[in-house]
Design goal:
Layout (H helix, E strand, L loop, with lengths): L5 H18 L5 H26 L5 E4 L10 E4 L1 H23 L9 H17 L3 H19 L5 H32 L4 H9 L3 H22 L7 H8 L2 H6 L3 H16 L12 H21 L3 H22 L2 H31 L16 H16 L5 H12 L6 H27 L15 H11 L1 H7 L1 H16 L1 H9 L9
Antiparallel strand pairs: 1-2
Helix pairs in contact: 1-2, 1-4, 2-3, 2-4, 3-4, 3-14, 3-18, 4-5, 5-6, 6-8, 6-9, 7-21, 8-11, 9-13, 11-13, 12-13, 12-17, 13-14, 13-17, 14-15, 14-16, 14-18, 14-20, 15-17
């Protein structure tokens, strides 16, 4: 295997896992679990190896069918895509193990097949260097996510899933309109080649390319849940199973990744009059999204719903970092992205464990019967809450401080400081109120109908939660890595040269 084959291997591995899981279905759920775990673990190991390779700074470009760019389909592995795939793989292993430990995978058909196809779509979206294939992989991951979201059934889950399906179908249609428009003007859909054409674009066509670029931003905004296109997220994430919600912590990041990759490359400083087309829009919408998310966190009536709004708040904070549009801000954003993805997923699992420990009161924010193991669960909740709202000394605080420091160069720095700081304060108050209701305002006269604490599930949730102190202890090396990722992203010419200069394979090499 050569380094240039790494990108395609990262895509084919979960696809093969999905096929084998499908054929193992007649043998029952135990074999499906073994196959699914083996392939997901293998993907994690390969992802770790991939990060070490990508960290050298070289691009790995794979030409499908041995057709050179821009005539063929290319898969590109760089530092950012390797980081996103590693995060996906970590979540995938833990969420899958959690689903097995809680029996979630037995509550419907084809859970493991859909799970592997979901990973196939996610990895493809992170690796493709072509806009049309980004659309294709979006559709693959969305089709799998529809099944996973509704897995197990239920009225609220179906209702939330329906909103998710409808708005993403609209997004897919808009994506095709934008892709068709850009192809009509530029004559290519290879992202590196499109960037070159936009840099040479005459003024007569700049308006229509700008319109298509903004239409793409709407599409990615739907995936990322940006205001006013975020209303599908709280009900969809709050009502699906905890394992699926934990895996979906990376789904909104796909939209953010697409903005960084597509808009960051097409509308870089080389795009002359169209340079930075998206930045101010993303920054402004990020601020509004954060304000709306904070209100949602405060108004939530259940812990899982509150967690979904906290995910939305993290997305908004990331948008602000992307919108500032400097190398320092992007490095800070990527550090916060690692933190928010892992801790957000961990909070979904913690909320599920607490809901099971409260019996019929589930995760509703109202006084219930005293919980068994309240000290243990309360301690885990306390640590997770501190991390997710960004209080010192955990990683959320460091990430926000880095973004605020980078915001000093922005003309909207006053608004950024005000909304992030006030929003953080309100989220602290909301989480303190939730913890108080769940762990202190209990009624001893109520019957205890809770489930037995699943130690294995709690251990899996702790693995994600403990990522926060690890991100603090290793803040130096990790922030150095995110800085190098941001620097590579801003070297657009190197990306273009790597993709367009990749030669076709000659026999005997």
């Amino acid at each position: 295997m050569t380094l240039s084959q790494l990108p395609i291997l990262l895509i084919l591995l979960p696809l093969l896992g999905g096929i084998l899981t499908l054929f193992s279905r007649p043998k029952g759920i135990p074999l499906q679990r073994v196959v699914s775990l083996i392939f997901t673990m293998a993907l994690l190991l390969l992802s770790i190896y991939t990060v070490t390779i990508a960290n050298s700074g070289d691009y790995s470009v794979y030409l499908l069918g041995n057709w050179t760019a821009p005539f063929g389909i290319v898969m590109v592995l760089d530092k950012l895509s390797s980081l996103m795939i590693l995060l996906t793989s970590i979540l995938a292993v833990i969420a899958l193990a959690y689903a097995i430990s809680q029996g979630t995978d037995k509550k419907g058909q084809h859970f493991h097949v859909l799970y592997q196809i979901q990973l196939f779509g996610l990895n493809g979206a992170f690796l493709t260097g072509d806009l049309f294939n980004l659309f294709v992989f979006f559709e693959v991951l969305l089709l799998a996510s529809y099944g996973l979201l509704l897995h197990g059934g239920g009225r609220l889950r179906t209702k939330g899933g329906l909103h998710y399906v409808v708005i993403n179908l609209v997004g897919s249609s808009l994506f095709l309109f934008a892709v068709g428009t850009l192809y009509g003007i530029l004559g290519t859909l290879n992202i590196a080649d499109m960037s070159t054409h936009i840099a040479q674009l005459d003024s007569a066509h700049q308006g229509i390319v700008a319109a298509a670029g903004l239409l793409l931003l709407v599409v990615f905004g739907i995936k990322a849940a940006i205001f006013p296109l975020y209303l599908w997220l709280p009900s969809a994430y709050a009502n699906t199973s905890a394992a699926v919600a934990a895996l979906f912590a990376i789904m909104t990041k796909v939209g953010l990744y697409a903005i960084i990759r597509v808009h960051g490359t097409l509308f870089s400083e080389q795009a002359s009059a169209l340079a930075g087309l998206h930045a101010e829009v993303v920054l402004s919408l990020g601020l509004v999204t954060l304000a709306m998310a904070v209100l949602g966190v405060f108004a939530s009536r259940a812990l899982k719903e509150q967690t979904a709004f906290l995910i939305l708040a993290s997305v908004a904070t990331l948008l602000i970092g992307i919108g500032i549009n400097t190398t320092e801000a992007l490095a800070a954003t990527l550090y916060y992205l690692i933190h928010s993805t892992l801790i957000g997923a961990g909070l979904f699992l913690v909320a599920d464990i607490i809901a099971r420990a409260r019996g019929s009161y589930s995760d509703r924010l109202r006084p219930g019967a005293p919980m068994k193991h309240a000290v243990v669960l309360g301690s885990v909740f306390f640590i997770t809450a501190i991390a997710i709202v960004g209080m010192p000394p955990l990683s959320g605080f460091i990430g926000k401080v880095m973004i605020l420091e980078a915001a000093l160069s922005s003309t909207l720095s006053t608004w950024i400081y005000a909304i992030i700081l006030i929003g953080s304060l309100l989220m602290i108050m909301a989480m303190a109120r939730s913890g108080s209701i769940i762990f202190y305002q209990t009624d001893t006269s109520l019957d205890d109908d809770s489930e037995k604490l699943n130690i294995r599930a709690l251990a899996l949730a702790l693995v994600l939660v403990l990522a926060s102190p690890i991100l603090v202890i290793a803040a130096g090396p990790i922030s150095d890595f995110t800085q190098s990722v941001a620097s590579q992203l801003n070297d657009h010419q190197a990306y273009i040269d790597a993709v367009m200069g990749q030669p076709a394979y000659q026999g005997g090499e």
